[in-house]
Amino acid sequence: MKTSHPSSPAYYIGLMSGTSLDGIDAALVAITPDHPPTLLATAAIAMPDALHGQLLHLCHASSASFAELAAAEDAFCRVQAKAVQALLAERGLTPEQITAIGSHGQTIEHAPQGHQSGPAYTLQLDNPSLLAELTGCTVVADFRRRDLAAGGQAAPLAPAFHQALFGQRPGEQLVLNLGGFANLTWLPHQPAYAVMGFDTGPANVLLDAWFAKHHAGRFDENGTWAASGQIDEALLARLLEEPFFQQVPPRSTGRELFHLTWLEQHLSGYEAPQDVQATLAELTAVSVAQGVALLPLEQPSATLLVCGGGAHNAYLMKRVAAQLPQVTLLSPASLGWPEDWIEAGAFAWLAHQRLHGLPGNLPSVTGASGPRVLGGMYAP
C-alpha cells in the first residue's frame, strides 16, 4: 500500500462496469482530507464483443461451468488492467504513485433477498489478485458482501459518495444515476434527516435489450428510436404492476428480475417496436418519479443531478423532466464531475475509505445493521 503526506492529495483509481455491460470506466481521483474528492482524469475501454456476449450469457444462465466463469473473469480483469494502464499513461503516472485501485467487478447476479429460501447473495466477477499483478497497484475489491453480511441490500453504495461530493451544497440535492438500472439518492438539507437512496427500477438494461433485438447496435443513441414511437399507456400500466415498484425502501434490483423475457411476457404481440421503446423510456421516467414521491422532500423544489449513460439519452431526459416538474435538473459536469464518471469515482472513494478504516455504506440506504468498512485489500 502506498502512502502520502497527510496534507497532500492521494491518488486513487476507481473501476466500474455497470449492468449495461458496455465497458470499463476508469476514474483517477485525488482525495485530500477535509475536501471533496477531485476528478483528475478518465479512461474508458469498450467491452469487447466476445466478452460482452460471455457476460450477458452468464447474467441469465441457470447454470455455468467453473471454466466459463474463470474465462470471463480473466478476460474482464485484463480489460480492467488496460483501462488502468491507459489512465496512468495519459497522466504520466507510475503504479507507485497510486495509493489504491477500487474495483467494483462485474455484477452477474444480485439477490439481496435470497433465492428460493436460500441465503442472500450478490455476485461480482473479479480477480483482484490478478489485477494487482497486472497493474502493480494495491487493489481494494469485494465491496458489497460486507454490507450484505450485516443485513443490508449491498446496494446502492454510491449514495455515500454522493454525500461526500455534493452534501455541502446549499438546499436539497437529488442524485439520479441512469445506468443499467436507475437509482436515486436524497441528500437532505436538514441534518435531522438521514440520507436515503434506492433503486427505482430499470433504465438502460431494457432499453438496450429491446434496441439490440431490432437493430445491429447495442443502444438507442440519443433516444432517437424511442422518440419516433408513441407511449403505449396500456403496456406501461402492465409493466408498472410489477411488485418491485410498490416495495418500500431499502430496495435494490437487477437483471434477475428485469430482462428481455420479463418485458416480452407483458407484450400483447401487436405493439410496434418503436412504441415499446418509447414506453420503456416512460417506465424509467415514471418509476423515478414514483421514487421521488417516496422521499420526505423539505422544499417545494430540489436540484436533481443526473449521471450515468442515460443522461446522454435526450428523449429519456425529456421524459424524466416531464415527470418531475418540481425539480431543477443540473448537470454534475458543472460541479466538476461529468455524468459518466461518478460511479467509477465512487469506487475510488470507497477504496480510500477501506484503507483508512472508514465506513463505506450508509445503513439508512442499504438497511444494514450499522456502518461497515467495505472491501478486501490485495497488495501488488
Description:
The protein is α/β, with parallel strands linked by helices. The strands form two sheets. Strands 1, 2, 3, 4, 5, 6 and 12 form a seven-stranded mixed sheet that branches. A five-stranded mixed sheet has the order 9-8-7-10-11, with helices on both faces. It is globular and about 60 Å long.
Offer a quick outline of the entry.
The protein is of the alpha/beta class and 380 residues long. Helices cover 36% and strands 21% of the residues. The strands form two sheets. Strands 1, 2, 3, 4, 5, 6 and 12 form a seven-stranded mixed sheet that branches. It has a five-stranded mixed sheet with strand order 9-8-7-10-11, with helices on both faces.
